[in-house]
Amino acid sequence: MAVHMATGIAVPAREHDSDHQAPLQAPVETPSGCHAETVTEVEHYTDRLFRFRISRPASFRFRSGEFVMIGLPGTRPVFRAYSIASPSWDDTLEFYSIKVPAGPLTEYLQRVQPGDTIWMRRKATGTLVLDALLPGRNLWMFGTGTGIAPFASVIRDPESYEKFESLVLAHGCRLTAELAYGQQVVTATYSDPLVGDLATNRLKLIDATTRQPHARTGRLTTLLETGSLESIAGAPLDPATDRVMICGSMAMLRDMRDALESGGFTEGSNARPGTLVIEKAFVD
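Request: output the structure for the sequence above.
Response:
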């Protein structure tokens, strides 16, 4: 799979111009191993970012934080990994995407409308799940760009509040307009009938920009190094009590992991839980 965009736009994988192909044509039958689902909602935030929802197959199961391969109907279908932004209990599936000029998938995906068909592989997977973390007191989630998508799922899952006393979501983007999705999701979480009462006092959003004035400016890694994130959260990051999830650009993943591991955090997986997990599906 491809590398996350260096700008910090993280999910889905980068689509290269060399991958460009002619517009896809709808085939007669859905490929084996795929669901054919219907687009139910589309919202565009900027000329680079949009979200969409699709119907959910009755048989489809996933853990909050996992990703799935999706594509558009065609004779030569292109599939890309997309983190599921809706929680595991939702009856529809939400995705948050970049728009890549001449990309083999997003060139056409960004044009979808309610009623259109999306192909989705039958199995979800990923490492940004609660099962891959050891028990702890606080859950920190670091996401850049669309790397916030898996955390939009995690913060709306009741299990997150059963396992952790507090949740801190740190979201970094280039421009202030690119922070809108994260702000929208967190606001909706506060009023959610299932987790709203829990989230109101236990979920904190810390967002920042790198190329435009904002209340907080700088890369998340820099804000962590200077202590700004811990100051805003009101507590230091401690591997004895805190657990961390990371999803973002390759550079961000590398730098954040190095900083946290030097502070005593250890990377975990589904097979061997740790104090830190990273989504590697979008990195070569």
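The first strand starts at residue 34 and ends at 44.
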